[in-house]
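Hey all, quick one. A colleague (J.T.) asked me to put the 6-O-phosphono-beta-D-fructofuranose job into the tracker so the inputs and the structure tokens live in one place instead of scattered across chat threads. No bug as far as I know, just bookkeeping. Sequence used:
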Amino acid sequence: IKRIAVFTSGGDAPGMNAAIRAVVRTASFHDLHVYGISRGYEGMIDGDFKRLERKDVANIIHRGGTVLKTARSKRFMTPEGRKTAYESLKAFDIDACIAIGGNGTFTGANIFAQEHPIPIIGLPGTIDNDLFGTDYTIGFDTAVNTAIDAVDKIRDTADSHDRVFFVEVMGRHAGYIALHTGIASGAESVVTPEIDTTIEDVVGVLQRSAKRKKLFSLIIVAEGSRLGNANEIAAKVNERLPGVFDIRVAVIGHLQRGGAPSHLDRMLASRMGHAAVEGLVEGKADVMAGIVNDEIVYTPFYDAIFTEKTINNQLIKMAGILAM
Ligand code: F6P
């Protein structure tokens, strides 16, 4: 291979820039030319390519977001869109691609690689940490740190007013952000899609606290929880125990997607970006580069998307014990 294209796609995640930098610098080490594609698959379809050299990725390792911009492309979901995208790659003589994104990005890459002869390596860039084949995804650690910082602040006011706060965090269908935020911020309870929690469980936790004369509580709710979002759960609790607790809801939202990447995310992004180029040089294709037990591993896109990443049951058990 001589020319690689790199792009970011789907929701942005802190550390994506560090990954782009690692890709460009490792490629340059191997005398490969790199083109950056703007706005993910949208830019691929539109032929929005720009040569990236070592100097072009200076001064970005510490920046949140993605300098390549990102998009969720509807056009790439159609065979015609993917055909146009492939024609753009050929027009720029691209022999291989590096896709930085999450589930949707790899679903697109997987189909694209079946339809067109272009090797692709993926880098897990999503705050949700919901990809099999890597212990952590790029952006997850920073997002959790942001959520913890928010919950620490909410704790101050919850304590002062003796209030119960339901704090909603992102994660789409996964509860990793919620579980890690809950444990690290000392929340009373965590409601995630993976744990079968009932309203009675939540009410039980609050009553147990109240018995100990502790009227303030923090409950972390994953946005994809089966019990509903934070507002819905708060309303149900209020219905069960009308007026017993002074309840408030805080939805942290897109704050979790921004900010300077943490040390862990810069490390993950640098190692994975480097591994993606090394993988292409070694002839790997249609796999995601991840880190499991501190080792680089390459997982086929299909498995990364469809194999369920099981949440650590010991952590769930421990969260319950530490909150008591
Ligand atoms: O996948 C990352 C994520 O932030 C999810 O946690 C969330 O459900 C979704 O993206 C929000 O998407 P958007 O930025 O398009 O509103």
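Adding what we noticed when we looked at it: The chain is about 45% helix and 20% strand. The radius of gyration is 22 Å.
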